[in-house]
Amino acid sequence: MLEFIGPASRLLFTLENILWINIGVFIGSVFAAIPGLTVILCVILFLPFTYQMTAIPGMMFLLGIYCAGGYGGSVSAILINTPGTPHAAATMLDGHPLSKQGRTKAALKIALYASTFGGMFSALMLLFLGPQVARVAAQLGTAEYFMVCLFGLTIIAGVSGRSMVKGIISACVGLLISCIGADPMTGYDRLTFGVGRLYLGLDLAVCLIGLFALVEILAKAELKPDALHLDAKKMEDSGVITKEEYKRMARPVLLSSLIGSLVGIIPGTGASEASWFSYNTAKNMSKHPEEFGHGSVEGIAAAESANNAVTGATLIPLLTLGIPGDGTVAIMLSALMINGLNPGLSLFTTDGDIMYAIMLGLILVNLFMLFQGKFLTRLFAKVVSIPQEILTPVIVIFCFAGAYSVNKNYFDVAVALVFAVAAWVLRKLDMPAVPILLGMVLGNMTETNFRRALLISNGSPAIFFSSVYCIIFLVLIVVAVGTIVRGKLNERKAAQAAGKEL
Fold first, then answer.
1. To 10 degrees, what angle do helices 271-285 and 89-100 make?
2. 3-state secondary structure of 180
3. Measured between alpha carbons, how far is 22 from 159 in angstroms, rounded to an integer?
4. What backbone phi and psi angles, to 5 degrees, belong to 340?
5. What are residue 182's phi and psi, to 5 degrees?
6. What is the dihedral of CA 33, 35, 36, 38, to 10 degrees?
7. DSSP 8-state assignment for residue 191
């Protein structure tokens, strides 16, 4: 580790990297502060711009968006009682009541400090745990990697929404899309229907622009335009946080950062689960549980430290095993691979200086998020009230520009439009989009390792039970699926019991 720190620092501390970190943090904060615009949408829109960059500036830019998006959602949650991102919903419970008490600046400062601590905590977890996991990854063969991919596909059950069946169908659609193009083993074309441009497959960034970005525009077109008018007087309080309040926040922030990091390491979980679990834990452990829901500083601190602690932890399975922890991190995988960086041992041996630069950069990202939050909070607050009729055309322009810029051809723009229409139809059928993304990301990797393992074993499936790691991942798959199914059944029983009470 120490031998990489020096070269990594020289690669990281350049004017270009510092600039892109700050641009990413600013964009992420602005997007997340606007209700209805998610972090995953922001990352998708700006992903094509990273294709012209080298690995470190590109990842710094995306990590800036990702981390700042975790904090930015709290701005609208506190100011207008509407979470900018789904994981800021827990912050809203105490953030807005504290704002109504005339302590808006204090609530925003608590959210910023807690988010920064959680982000720094998870960045250190990545720095120290990542290389250890990579050493284990070095011992995995094709059969083991297939089991890892299969374990990664269990994420789908966790992001399927209300219906697991619909989630699995969506994932199958994603797996089918991943098959378009040349067969990875034989080179024969599949599902191209004579269209030469499809031989190399569909570009992930182009598909995601249609799947997540343009479809949001179609959905907004069905709604009446609305504008949120923010009362400027809300930002005129002193913003003072007392020593007693800092003491009360210390334990929930530390515990929630640990919870968020552990949740982030497990594929299929995310910031929303971490923030709610941490909020609940903080309430149960608090000496003042009656304040929760009425402006508790502990509640804001717990929720915000947890959802930002997820960010660094989700990169651990991504960088070491190629398994994305959530949908946003899955998109970052293409940013790595476009620069020839394939997740696994090679990232920490042949490209160790680049990997350590990225991990150290995550600490910088959180520091700049703190500085921007302190000096630009009033600006982020004003962003909340941008009218939809101004915002929507700007996003459309970014979508088309991004789709065109990937390969500089209009075919990709047409692909993005096709995916937008398909995603709109799927939304009408209440089919989730994230499983499609995970199917597309993991499909090729799963197929290639499965077929290679069978070639090595002359077609014998016994190879998938031939090592300790295969058995471990098989047990993890069974446990993960069992836990998710049990959770879904409990949700259904709770819903039925609530229906009977009504």
1. 50
2. coil
3. 31
4. 75, 20
5. -75, 140
6. 20
7. S
Structural tokens at position 278: 């941490």
End-to-end CA distance of the chain: 59
Q: Is 301 helix (H, G, I), strand (E, B) or coil?
A: helix
207-246 per-residue burial string, b: 16 or more CB within 10 A, e: under 16: bbbbbbbbbbbeebeeeeeeeeeeeeebbeeeeebeeeee
User: Kind of pairing, strands 189-190 and 181-182?
Assistant: antiparallel
Q: CA–CA separation, 446 vs 438, rounded Å? A: 11
The total of other beta-carbon atoms located within 10 Å of residue 458's CB is 7
Q: How confident is the model at residue 19 (pLDDT cuts 50, 70, 90)?
A: very high
**pLDDT, position 1:** 59
Report the alpha-carbon distance of residue 337 to residue 260 in Å, rounded.
27
**Tokens 């807690």 correspond to what residue?**
114
- 28/49 Cα distance (integer angstroms): 15
1-15, 85-99, 374-388: least confident range: 374-388
Helices (H), 102-214: 104-137, 142-153, 155-158, 164-178, 204-208
- For 130, 188, 335, the CA distances from 348, given in Å and listed in that order, are 9, 34, 17
**2, 9, 53, 4: which is closest to 348 by C-alpha?**
4
- Cut 0.90: pTM above it: no
Q: What is the 3-state secondary structure (H, E, C) of 339-398?
A: CCCCCCHHHHCCCHHHHHHHHHHHHHHHHHHHHHHHHHHHHHHHHCCCCHHHHHHHHHHH
Q: CA-to-CA distance for 186 and 443, rounded, in angstroms?
A: 17
